[in-house]
Amino acid sequence: MTRSSMTRRGFLAAAASAVAGAPYLARAQSRWPLTVTDAIGRTVIIQKRPEAVILGTGFNLIALSLIHPDPVSLLAGWANDMKGDNPFIYEAFRKKFPAIETVPYVGNGQADGLSFETALSLNADLAMMGMWQADSELGRRAMQYLESVGVPVVVVDFSRDPLRTTPRDMRLLGRIFERDQQAEDFARFFETRLARIKAKTASTTDSGGPLVLMDAYPSDVRGSWAIGRTGLGELIVLAGGRNAADKNLPPQGGPVTAEYILAADPDVYIATGSPGGTYTAFSVGPGVDPSEARRSLGETVKMPNLAPLKAVREGRVHGLWNFFNAVPLNILAAEAVATWVRPDLFGDVDPASSLAELNDRFAAVPIEGAYWTSLKA
């Protein structure tokens, strides 16, 4: 073969490769400006791929870390609620991405703490907010302000209707940050596990299931908050159980008395909490040792309003990280709740295995700690 023929072949191969790649290049270039619909149905126009993002809640850094290898590099500013409530997560991000220490704080994650002056100084090209922020009057004012100074705002929902909206909004973030395939893979990871739970529940002919009380931050001083039928409460019905707070409280649940809990007398009791026993003696979540989570749960159910319950007497007592209601990791909570509510149906479901796969395939920073626990193995 002559040198000239080799050159011609090399040129033709390069040209063919360029032609083959042209549609992808065209699609990437034509993406911007990008028009999307966010979690509350707003049409949002984003002029270019975001490189300076304000996070109205720090918990959305976890969502970004599931689809982006360096989510901290995207930040122009963020709220400090995740650092305050779950400092182990912050420390894990800081160790891998030291630049997080220099990212300015713009508020406390509760919308009322948003510093308009700081936000204006950051030259951000996008802001992300959580559903609970968009639900408040102060949150809506913050959104209006940001948009008035040219910063588009996208709202994502991992809390109110998580089983439906989590894969949808992860795909949305994939489009926005040009991480489509990673977001699609995560959405399918989520949907496959959700479909398995639904299929097993649908296969039973039982007319009812065990009565379940999900108790947020149980305390004999502050009282209890029974979780209703939205958010984490969705997981009870998904697993084939009946929610003790389904009929007589608002959709999100509400504060309840000791008499309410004793009268409900659930078959299964699930407490939620956070690391260090914030608001409650129960400590669970990022950085918590499994033995400490189990021990603190055991101490919690010795309280006078819990000790007499049927669920406690029969050993059907469990605990869950409360902030599953703020991040796309909620499919792990769904699997854990399913194994507790209907162990007869979900004996082969292993949320620990799902967490290991999630860490291996998606997490830029490993998700470590005791995110759920039980008093009986």
TrEMBL record:
<protein>
    <submittedName>
        <fullName>ABC transporter substrate-binding protein</fullName>
    </submittedName>
</protein>
<feature type="signal peptide">
    <location>
        <begin position="1"/>
        <end position="28"/>
    </location>
</feature>
<keyword id="KW-0732">Signal</keyword>
<dbReference type="InterPro" id="IPR006311">
    <property type="entry name" value="TAT_signal"/>
</dbReference>
<dbReference type="InterPro" id="IPR050902">
    <property type="entry name" value="ABC_Transporter_SBP"/>
</dbReference>
<feature type="domain" description="Fe/B12 periplasmic-binding">
    <location>
        <begin position="51"/>
        <end position="349"/>
    </location>
</feature>
<dbReference type="InterPro" id="IPR002491">
    <property type="entry name" value="ABC_transptr_periplasmic_BD"/>
</dbReference>
<dbReference type="Pfam" id="PF01497">
    <property type="entry name" value="Peripla_BP_2"/>
</dbReference>
